[in-house]
Write a structure and sequence with these properties.
- By secondary structure, the protein is an all-alpha fold.
- Helix content is about 70%, strand content about 0%.
- The longest helix is centred in the first third of the chain and has 24 residues.
- It is globular and about 55 Å long.
Protein backbone atom coordinates (compact mmCIF):
# COMPACT_ATOMS: atom_id res chain seq x y z
CA UNK A 1 0.00 0.00 0.00
CA UNK A 2 1.13 3.52 -0.66
CA UNK A 3 1.86 6.04 2.04
CA UNK A 4 -0.88 8.38 0.81
CA UNK A 5 -3.95 8.30 3.02
CA UNK A 6 -2.15 6.85 6.02
CA UNK A 7 -4.09 7.82 9.15
CA UNK A 8 -4.20 6.71 12.79
CA UNK A 9 -7.54 5.00 12.15
CA UNK A 10 -6.21 3.00 9.20
CA UNK A 11 -3.13 2.03 11.17
CA UNK A 12 -5.20 0.81 14.12
CA UNK A 13 -7.53 -1.20 11.89
CA UNK A 14 -4.52 -2.83 10.24
CA UNK A 15 -3.05 -3.52 13.68
CA UNK A 16 -6.32 -5.16 14.73
CA UNK A 17 -6.26 -7.48 11.72
CA UNK A 18 -2.62 -8.28 12.33
CA UNK A 19 -3.31 -9.01 16.00
CA UNK A 20 -5.92 -11.58 15.03
CA UNK A 21 -3.48 -13.19 12.59
CA UNK A 22 -0.27 -13.30 14.64
CA UNK A 23 -1.30 -12.47 18.19
CA UNK A 24 -1.57 -9.17 20.01
CA UNK A 25 1.90 -9.43 21.56
CA UNK A 26 3.45 -9.83 18.11
CA UNK A 27 2.05 -6.60 16.69
CA UNK A 28 4.93 -4.19 16.12
CA UNK A 29 5.40 -0.89 14.38
CA UNK A 30 7.87 -2.55 12.02
CA UNK A 31 5.30 -5.16 10.99
CA UNK A 32 2.73 -2.46 10.34
CA UNK A 33 5.22 -0.41 8.35
CA UNK A 34 5.85 -3.42 6.13
CA UNK A 35 2.11 -3.86 5.69
CA UNK A 36 1.75 -0.30 4.44
CA UNK A 37 4.96 -0.37 2.42
CA UNK A 38 6.57 2.47 4.36
CA UNK A 39 9.49 2.93 6.71
CA UNK A 40 8.97 2.69 10.47
CA UNK A 41 9.57 6.41 10.83
CA UNK A 42 6.47 7.16 8.74
CA UNK A 43 4.24 5.76 11.45
CA UNK A 44 5.61 8.13 14.06
CA UNK A 45 3.78 10.94 12.32
CA UNK A 46 0.59 9.29 13.54
CA UNK A 47 1.60 7.39 16.67
CA UNK A 48 3.88 8.22 19.58
CA UNK A 49 5.18 4.70 20.13
CA UNK A 50 4.12 1.06 20.47
CA UNK A 51 2.30 1.70 23.73
CA UNK A 52 0.25 4.38 22.01
CA UNK A 53 -0.67 1.91 19.28
CA UNK A 54 -1.67 -0.75 21.79
CA UNK A 55 -3.81 1.70 23.73
CA UNK A 56 -5.58 2.82 20.56
CA UNK A 57 -6.09 -0.82 19.59
CA UNK A 58 -7.55 -1.60 23.01
CA UNK A 59 -10.03 1.26 22.68
CA UNK A 60 -10.91 0.21 19.13
CA UNK A 61 -11.48 -3.42 20.09
CA UNK A 62 -13.38 -2.48 23.22
CA UNK A 63 -15.79 -0.40 21.15
CA UNK A 64 -16.24 -3.30 18.70
CA UNK A 65 -16.95 -5.70 21.53
CA UNK A 66 -19.58 -3.54 23.22
CA UNK A 67 -21.24 -2.83 19.87
CA UNK A 68 -21.70 -6.57 19.42
CA UNK A 69 -22.96 -6.98 22.98
CA UNK A 70 -25.37 -4.05 22.62
CA UNK A 71 -27.02 -5.64 19.60
CA UNK A 72 -27.30 -8.97 21.42
CA UNK A 73 -28.90 -7.62 24.61
CA UNK A 74 -31.25 -5.07 23.02
CA UNK A 75 -34.78 -5.54 24.32
CA UNK A 76 -33.75 -8.25 26.77
CA UNK A 77 -33.62 -8.37 30.56
CA UNK A 78 -32.72 -10.76 33.36
CA UNK A 79 -31.47 -14.19 32.33
CA UNK A 80 -32.14 -13.54 28.64
CA UNK A 81 -29.94 -10.42 28.72
CA UNK A 82 -27.20 -12.18 30.66
CA UNK A 83 -27.20 -15.12 28.25
CA UNK A 84 -27.07 -12.82 25.22
CA UNK A 85 -24.34 -10.69 26.81
CA UNK A 86 -22.25 -13.75 27.66
CA UNK A 87 -22.71 -15.29 24.22
CA UNK A 88 -21.67 -12.12 22.40
CA UNK A 89 -18.64 -11.74 24.66
CA UNK A 90 -17.49 -15.32 24.09
CA UNK A 91 -18.12 -15.14 20.35
CA UNK A 92 -15.95 -12.04 20.02
CA UNK A 93 -13.18 -13.45 22.20
CA UNK A 94 -12.94 -16.62 20.11
CA UNK A 95 -13.45 -15.04 16.68
CA UNK A 96 -11.16 -12.04 17.27
CA UNK A 97 -8.43 -13.35 19.60
CA UNK A 98 -5.91 -10.59 18.94
CA UNK A 99 -8.44 -7.83 19.30
CA UNK A 100 -9.83 -9.45 22.44
CA UNK A 101 -6.36 -9.72 23.97
CA UNK A 102 -5.96 -5.98 23.43
CA UNK A 103 -9.05 -5.29 25.55
CA UNK A 104 -7.38 -6.95 28.52
CA UNK A 105 -4.36 -4.65 28.81
CA UNK A 106 -4.02 -2.33 31.77
CA UNK A 107 -4.83 1.25 30.80
CA UNK A 108 -4.71 4.67 32.38
CA UNK A 109 -8.00 5.27 34.18
CA UNK A 110 -8.25 8.77 32.73
CA UNK A 111 -8.18 7.32 29.21
CA UNK A 112 -10.83 4.79 30.13
CA UNK A 113 -13.06 7.47 31.63
CA UNK A 114 -12.72 9.60 28.48
CA UNK A 115 -13.51 6.75 26.10
CA UNK A 116 -17.08 6.65 24.73
CA UNK A 117 -16.72 2.92 24.14
CA UNK A 118 -15.77 2.15 27.71
CA UNK A 119 -18.50 4.44 29.07
CA UNK A 120 -20.99 2.57 26.90
CA UNK A 121 -19.62 -0.73 28.18
CA UNK A 122 -20.15 0.38 31.76
CA UNK A 123 -23.64 1.66 30.97
CA UNK A 124 -24.79 -1.57 29.34
CA UNK A 125 -23.12 -3.86 31.87
CA UNK A 126 -24.29 -1.99 34.95
CA UNK A 127 -27.74 -1.52 33.44
CA UNK A 128 -28.08 -5.26 32.97
CA UNK A 129 -27.01 -5.90 36.56
CA UNK A 130 -29.30 -3.25 38.03
CA UNK A 131 -32.18 -5.31 36.65
CA UNK A 132 -31.20 -7.83 39.32
CA UNK A 133 -31.74 -5.15 41.97
CA UNK A 134 -28.03 -4.62 42.64
CA UNK A 135 -26.53 -1.35 43.82
CA UNK A 136 -23.01 -0.36 44.79
CA UNK A 137 -20.79 -1.82 46.10
CA UNK A 138 -22.45 -5.04 44.92
CA UNK A 139 -22.55 -3.81 41.31
CA UNK A 140 -18.77 -3.60 41.14
CA UNK A 141 -18.40 -7.02 42.76
CA UNK A 142 -20.84 -8.53 40.26
CA UNK A 143 -19.05 -6.94 37.30
CA UNK A 144 -15.78 -8.45 38.53
CA UNK A 145 -17.42 -11.87 38.86
CA UNK A 146 -18.80 -11.75 35.32
CA UNK A 147 -15.57 -10.51 33.81
CA UNK A 148 -13.38 -13.08 35.56
CA UNK A 149 -15.76 -15.92 34.67
CA UNK A 150 -16.15 -14.94 31.01
CA UNK A 151 -12.47 -14.16 30.52
CA UNK A 152 -11.24 -17.25 32.33
CA UNK A 153 -13.53 -19.54 30.37
CA UNK A 154 -12.67 -17.97 27.02
CA UNK A 155 -8.94 -18.01 27.75
CA UNK A 156 -9.03 -21.72 28.63
CA UNK A 157 -11.23 -22.59 25.68
CA UNK A 158 -9.02 -20.69 23.23
CA UNK A 159 -5.95 -22.65 24.31
CA UNK A 160 -7.65 -26.05 24.40
CA UNK A 161 -7.63 -26.07 28.18
CA UNK A 162 -10.81 -28.14 28.52
CA UNK A 163 -9.78 -31.74 27.92
CA UNK A 164 -12.77 -33.63 29.31
CA UNK A 165 -15.29 -35.22 26.96
CA UNK A 166 -18.11 -32.97 28.21
CA UNK A 167 -19.30 -30.59 25.47
CA UNK A 168 -17.77 -27.16 26.04
CA UNK A 169 -20.95 -25.35 24.98
CA UNK A 170 -23.02 -27.25 27.53
CA UNK A 171 -20.57 -26.33 30.27
CA UNK A 172 -20.75 -22.70 29.16
CA UNK A 173 -24.55 -22.77 29.31
CA UNK A 174 -24.38 -24.20 32.83
CA UNK A 175 -21.89 -21.52 33.88
CA UNK A 176 -24.15 -18.73 32.61
CA UNK A 177 -27.17 -20.31 34.32
CA UNK A 178 -25.17 -20.49 37.56
CA UNK A 179 -24.23 -16.82 37.24
CA UNK A 180 -27.91 -15.96 36.83
CA UNK A 181 -28.74 -17.80 40.04
CA UNK A 182 -25.86 -16.09 41.82
CA UNK A 183 -27.08 -12.66 40.70
CA UNK A 184 -30.67 -13.44 41.75
CA UNK A 185 -29.47 -14.53 45.18
CA UNK A 186 -26.66 -12.04 45.62
CA UNK A 187 -25.37 -11.59 49.20
CA UNK A 188 -26.11 -7.87 49.23
CA UNK A 189 -23.84 -5.58 51.19
CA UNK A 190 -25.33 -2.53 52.78
CA UNK A 191 -23.60 0.69 51.79
CA UNK A 192 -21.88 2.73 54.48
CA UNK A 193 -24.45 5.51 53.93
CA UNK A 194 -27.37 3.17 54.57
CA UNK A 195 -25.65 1.76 57.64
CA UNK A 196 -25.10 5.26 59.03
CA UNK A 197 -28.74 6.19 58.42
CA UNK A 198 -29.96 3.06 60.21
CA UNK A 199 -27.66 3.70 63.14
CA UNK A 200 -28.89 7.28 63.47
CA UNK A 201 -32.49 6.00 63.57
CA UNK A 202 -31.79 3.42 66.29
Amino acid sequence: MARAGLTPARIVEAAADLADEVGFENVTLSALARHFGVKDASLYSHLRNLDDLRTRLALFAGAELIDRIAVAVAGRAGKDALTAFAGAYREYALERPGRYAATQIRMDQALIAASPGFRRTAGITYGMLRAYGLEEPDLTDAVRLLRSTFHGYCALEATGGFGAARDVQKSWDKAVAALHLALENWPRERSSENSSEEQSND
